[in-house]
Structures are given as structure tokens and as C-alpha cells.
């Protein structure tokens, strides 16, 4: 399996080196216009992040933001389980994609950190509900609270994510329209057009129709592109990239390591994902493209 992983890594490297940017390179400033200090998130771990991988640094900044936004306070019976269940689930690349997509098209990390935190909360709430009825022997993370508390807490995490987003609107800036679009994206991803409709199910794994899929990974990448000031085409390309990354992660979490037929499907999706990045500046795609090898390495021993 190590040979497979190395093979995929080589395919990614070769695909990236073959990307043609003639006539399609974007001319964007390296930073977005400065925002008002109204509710500007602070990236507290910027110095520490230099010693972390790109994706680890994003997750660290999301955790830092959520710990400040969701401290354990009165009433403790409400905020202690919410705090615990926010950080208990495994990390999701959906929230990290939000930041990576924003930075890819020239946005600043603080432009996307609130939306990324909200997406993490959606992931945590879905994970909490999905594991509610499992016994401790069936899951890696044991229940710390009773099922009634975990059910209600999971329900409360959804609106708290939208509260964070609404509070990030800056009346002195120009982000209100972007935040509204992000709220719509997230409600679709976790509502009737996304998770509830089962669009992340493995029944559809080998199909990606022209109709946009509202999975959480595609949503995360699209939200980052919106907040970074991306065009419609950029947003949709990054949405598709996120969908492929999420489908790869979903498939690998469901299959055994010896199912080589489905591993070929992973290679196919990876190539399609990299194809979506051809539109972007070659100097900017390296970091976001690494998510594919990162996702695969989580499921195979190296």
C-alpha cells in the first residue's frame, strides 16, 4: 500500500507539473482590502503555524477561534457539553478547505476563519447525531454525556454556527453580502439539498452529474472562494474540487484497504480534482492540492 500511496503522490506531482496556465492565469493582488476592526478575527497562532504543516496550521487557527468563541461559561450544563462535543469529533477537511480556497484566490485567512469555524460546528453536530446511538465499544470517542444531552447539544450547535457568521458581518465593511451567500451555502449543504438528501452517500460515488452537489466539502471550498472574492467560475471550480476531495475521504473511510477496484476510483477522482485547479495561478495551487495526499495518507500506513 505504500507503493500505491507513492504512486498517487507521483501522479499528483506530474499532474501539477503539466498544468497549463497560458491565457488563464488570474491577476489578483496577494491580499484582499483591509477590513474594518468591527469584528476582525485574530489569528493568534501565526508564529506557531510556521512550525506546522499548512493544513495543521489551518486546523490550529480554527480551534483557536472556536475556543475563544465557545468558552465554558454559565450555564455550565449547556456550554460544557457544547465545548466538549465541538472538539471531540475527528478533524474534517471541509472546514480547512474553506480557508485554503480563500487563500488560493488571494483572500486573507481571517476573511474565512469564521465560516470555517461554522462549518466545523456543522460537522461536529452531524457527527454527534450520527454517533448518538452507538455504544462506547462501537466508536473511538466514548460518550461523556447522556444521549438526551448530546442530542440537544448537537441541535444547539447548528444555530450557534449561524450566530457566529451573522456576528461577523461588518456594517463598515463590504462583507455582508458574502456572509449572506455563505449562510445560504451552508444551509443547503446541511439541509434538504445536502446531507438530508443523502448526496454524500456511497450509492452515488461513481457519479458526478452537472448539478452541483451540496456536500460539506464542496460547500467549504465554495464558501472560501466566496469570501476571498472569487468569480462565479472560480467558486464552482473550487466547489467541484472540494466535492472530489470529500468523496475520496468518504470512500476511503468506508472501504477495506484491499479493495483495489475502489482505489482506482480514488485515482480517477484525484485526477479530476487536480484538473479543476488548472484554472488557477500555478504558484498558489501547491498547498490546496496537498489535501489529496493528506486525505489518502490518513487511511493507509506509510
Describe this protein's structure.
By secondary structure, this protein is mainly alpha-helical. It has twelve helices and no strands. It has helices spanning 2-17, 46-49, 54-69, 76-87, 93-104, 109-130, 147-167, 176-190, 216-227, 232-254, 260-276, 285-297. It starts with a helix and ends in a 5-residue tail after the last helix.
Protein traits:
globular, mainly alpha, 302 residues, disordered N terminus
Short structural description:
It contains twelve helices and no strands. The protein is mostly helical and 302 residues long. The relative contact order is 0.16.
Give me the strand/helix succession: HHHHHHHHHHHH
* Backbone CA Rg: 19 Å
Q: Detail the poorly predicted runs.
A: 1-39, 42-51, 198-214
Anisotropy-based shape: globular
Q: Number of helix segments?
A: 12
Task: Name the structural class.
Answer: mainly alpha
Instruction: Please count the beta strands (DSSP E, at least 2 residues each).
Output: 0
Give the helix level as a range of percent: 55-70%
Measured between the Cα atoms of the first and last residue, the distance is 8 Å
Largest sheet: none
Question: What is the arithmetic mean of pLDDT?
Answer: 76
Strand percentage, roughly? under 5%
Set out the fold topology.
Layout: H1 2-17, H2 46-49, H3 54-69, H4 76-87, H5 93-104, H6 109-130, H7 147-167, H8 176-190, H9 216-227, H10 232-254, H11 260-276, H12 285-297
